[in-house]
Structures are given as C-alpha cells and as structure tokens.
Amino acid sequence: MAKVEKSQALKEKISILPDTPGCYLYYDAAGNVIYVGKAKNLKRRVSSYFNRTHDSVRTMLLVRNIADMRYIVVPTEQDALNLENSLIKEYKPHYNVLLKDDKSYPWIVVTKEHYPRVFLTRTRIKDGSKYFGPYTNAGVAKAVLNLIRELYPVRTCRHAITPDYVAKGKGRLCLEYHLKNCMGCCTGLIGQDRYGEMMDHVRQILRGDTQELLDYLRTEMEKLAAELRFEEAQLLKEKYDLVARYQSKSVIVSQTLDDIDVFGVDDDRDMVYVNYMHVRRGAIVRSITFEYKRRLDEPIEDILGYAITEAAEKFDIEYDEIVIPVKPYIELEGVIYTVPQRGDKMKLLEVSTHNARQNKIDSLKMMEKHDPEKRVERTLERMKADFRLSVLPRHVECFDNSNIQGTNPVASCVVFRNAKPSKRDYRHFNIKTVEGPDDFASMKEVLTRRYTRMMEEGEELPQLIVVDGGKGQLSAAVEALDDMGLRGTIAVVGIAKRLEEIYFPGDSVPLYIDKNSESLRVVQQLRDEAHRFGITHHRNRRSKGQIVSELDDIKGVGEKTKQALLQHFKSVKRIREASIDAIAGITGPSRASLIYNALHPEGEQLDQ
C-alpha cells in the first residue's frame, strides 16, 4: 500500500511538533475527533503515521481520513497515559480501542460520616466515602457484608448523626439497638473514638488485611482470658473464628508476596480480555476483567496501557509493582514492571490469564446464546485467518480416497456450509481411470470430475478445498486445479493424520494449528465425515461385488429371484449352506438346482 499524501498545512504542523511526551488528536474533514493517541515523543510518533507504509487496512483508512491534527504536551509519560484515557472517554473516537465496560458491579462503601455506615451500592459518588470492590459476584459482596455485620454492630439507619444531633438529644433508640445490631450511636451510647476503632477493623477486612485483624483479636482474647473475663473472651473467639473462616476462602497464592497488581491477557484478535487482580499478603482480594474491542491493529502493549490506566482510575490505585506478560510501551514513574518466567509471580500471572480466558468464554457463550449466528461468523473469521484466505470459507469441500489392497477404489466428497455439514450435497465417486492403489492419481481424477461438472452446470464453487493427506495428495489436488484453470480461484489445503499438520501449496513446512482452535475442529470434522462417508460407500460396493460375482453370473437367475433369496436367507453364505429343498421353496426346483450347482462348483453336483 502506498503512503498517503497530506495537505501542506498538516505537514507544517507535524514538522514543528516537540520531542516531548503528550497526546495527539486526529480530526476528519467534518471536524470530528477520529483518533486519540499518546506518545513518549510526539514528533516521532505522529510522523510515523505519514512517512511509512502500513500493512493494516484499518490504519490506512485512518490515515486517509486525517484532515487536521492537534496535540497536548504533558510533563511525563504517565500524564500522557492518563490524559489519553480521559480524551478517549470524552470524544469516543471511531478508530480508538473501545472499552466494552458496560457492566455495573456492586461495591461496598464505608461512608464519610461521624458514625460511618457500611452498605452495598452499584453507584460511586465522589463524596469522600471509601469504596471497596468491585465484586464481580454479587453473592460474594453480600457474604462479606453479612460477615461484617456479624462481627460488628455497625449502624444501618440513614440519620445524619453529628455531635450536635447527639447533644440535642434528637436521637431515639430503635429496634436495631434492642436486637443488639447497633450500639446506640444516635443517643451517644458509643463514642466516636470507639466506633472509629471498630470501623478500622471493618476497613481491614474490606482491604483484605485479615491477618492483622486476626492477630489483634487473638491478643485481646488472651488478655481478657488472663483477666478471667471469659464471657468477653468467648465473644472475641467467635469473631476470630468468623474472620479465620473468611480468610480461608480467599485465594491464597503465596505467603511470601505482599501488595502486588497483576494483569493477565487473552487475545482474541478483534477482542482483547485483560484481567486485573490485586493481591494483598498473598491473597487475591480483587479480580475484574476488562473487555476491549480493537478498532485498529493495536498491539497488546498498547491495550495493557489502557487497562493499567483504567484500573488506576476506577479503583483509585497507586501502583508499586505490576506483574504483566509483556511490558507496555509507556513507563509509569516509580512503578516496577515484572514479566515473570517462573516462581510465585508466574503462578499469579497464570491465574490472572486463566480468569481473562474464562471471561472470554463466558462472554462468547452469552453472545452466542442470544445470537447463534455470531458463533458461525466467529468460526469462519478464524478459519479465514488460519488458512490465509481472502474471503470467508462459507462453502468448504473435503475429499478422501478409500480402497483395500487396490480393490474397488472410491472417493468421497463432503460439503460444509457455514461450518456445518450439508449432507444433501455429499457425493461419492467410483474411480474409473486409475489402475491399482494410486491415491495421488485418484485424487486428481476426482477433483477434475467434480469441478469440471460444477463449472459446466454453472454451480457455485467452494472457497476452500481440504484434502485428506499430506504433501502428495495436496500436490495432486493443485495439479487438478491448474489443469482446470482454477488455481487461485479456490484455496486448497491438506491435513495429515498423524500430528494434524495443515499443508499449504508450495510450502514444505506444515502449519500446526492450536489444538483448541475452532478452525482445527472444523477441519477435523470435515476429514472424519469424509472418511466415514467414503468407508460406507466402499463397504457397500464390496458387498455388492460379492453378490454380483456369485449370483448374477448364474444363467437363468434374474434380479427378482436373487432379491427373494437374499431377503429370505440374508446372505450368500447362508444360501450356500442351505439344502436344495430349502432353495426350491423360494425359487422352484429347476432354478434351485442351477443355484445349488453354481454355489458348489467343487462339491457334490446335483443332476440336472
């Protein structure tokens, strides 16, 4: 693809760009923002769009639509990352990666009040309150909230309880107090300092600092027991057991790790799933997956940058160390990037990646449940990419040869439409021009007969041909297409049985497709179906051959007689074993003697 020439005014703007971090905005002719980007070096990054050829069609379309450009200089790369995130959300540019984050997850909020409340919410308000989460499972959030209320009598009323409110005696003890679910904040029965200590413990649980809380409860429990205050010690022991059970349910990865943030990635070409996990004292206390839709061919390094910024903004995070599969393009000041190869951090990354992959599977299942055609389109898109096709393979045909020691050679052709069998289009062939067991020549004959006839009858040709076999069968198929002038019109690949290698014409090195790939599953199903269909036809032909050789050659025995015998005796073997009288009961005495003598050429002959 050729480079795109831009206006003189745009060239001048690019020529004076600074060599500093910043963000750039591309506008189309109508004045709409169509792309927002970040850069460590604005001049170098922006110039790269116009001074080189792009392999991506989508990037070329972006460049062609750029009519104007503006930029914003910032002090650091981290500022550029944060600004880009804000600008994308503000303008929603057509060509930028799209965060598909329309889910509303629950949070547990600790309000900023004299006597804070703790409750579940799906809306974050910037009022100084502290939000913990989000919880991807609402059931887990409710379980945590129930644990807190079992441990501590946190108030649930909505009164604005201030020191003035308490001093004026406006509060009235309610049923929650008498049920011992509240300590009478509204009447001043519990002071702010004591209530604040209780809320510190609540925040520890929500942050995942359960070990510190357990240590505190154990110390206090032992202190009360030493003072012979056994009833109070027993109450603390019950709280201790509740917290210990809650901690045991956390996913403990390593006792040697402290605070760490992990980003695992599963790349599905057009969609990228990034799982973010926060680990505290070796336990996973937060896990959420972001879904990004690619608009251009953004590399994983860019999308990781988006996810890191998104998580920091959403959860008010200050990173110390981030564990990631690859380093993003922009460095964050004071943040350590770790790409682990082994050990506990590698195990953490594997857990995060597994969560990203599971989220992808769940999203696809949900999408396919509402729109089954989505799965078909996704499968065809994957096949198009894996088999290097220029169009979606909506019509695929697979061929297989069958013969036993060169006898009764046949071939089968199975047809898939939209990645599903189209059995009414299946065909089988008896090999006519090939002598002996020559699979390569048989393959060439069958393809020639198949597509010559389809062209003569004006039928639509397939987009992909799959031949069951390696380089030899593939070469024979390519020769057939060459002879018919179809080379380049129909794509053809071969699949070898042993390691499921995929061979391409002119390429001596096979392709090994991921064993879990939908493309490989479709091709395996094609190959197995062609084999089954071919074997069935071959078996029927051999059976028919046996009948022809032993019954049809008997003079005086017609088709009706033969069918009557087979219907009664079920096989030629049973006819041979039957007595002359049994055969005569079906055919009459004269034909019975003919049949008996023909089936016993070396045995006892009956007189005519």
From TrEMBL:
Gene3D superfamilies attached to this UniProt entry: 5' to 3' exonuclease, C-terminal subdomain, GIY-YIG endonuclease, UvrC, RNAse H endonuclease domain
Ranges where the GIY-YIG domain occurs: 19-97
PROSITE patterns, sorted: GIY_YIG, UVRC
Subcellular location: Cytoplasm
Classification via InterPro entries: GIY-YIG_endonuc, GIY-YIG_endonuc_sf, GIY-YIG_UvrC_Cho, RuvA_2-like, UVR_dom_sf, UvrABC_protein_C, UvrC, UvrC_RNase_H_dom
Top-rank taxon: Bacteria
Main location, first listed in the record: cytoplasm
All copies of domain UvrC family homology region profile, residue ranges: 340-481
Keywords: Cytoplasm, DNA damage, DNA excision, DNA repair, Excision nuclease, SOS response
Pfam families reported in the protein's UniProt record: GIY-YIG, HHH_5, UvrC_RNaseH, UvrC_RNaseH_dom
Entry similarity comment: Belongs to the UvrC family.
Function as written in the Swiss-Prot or TrEMBL entry: The UvrABC repair system catalyzes the recognition and processing of DNA lesions. UvrC both incises the 5' and 3' sides of the lesion. The N-terminal half is responsible for the 3' incision and the C-terminal half is responsible for the 5' incision.
UniProt subunit comment: Interacts with UvrB in an incision complex.
Designated name of the protein: UvrABC system protein C
Protein's gene: uvrC
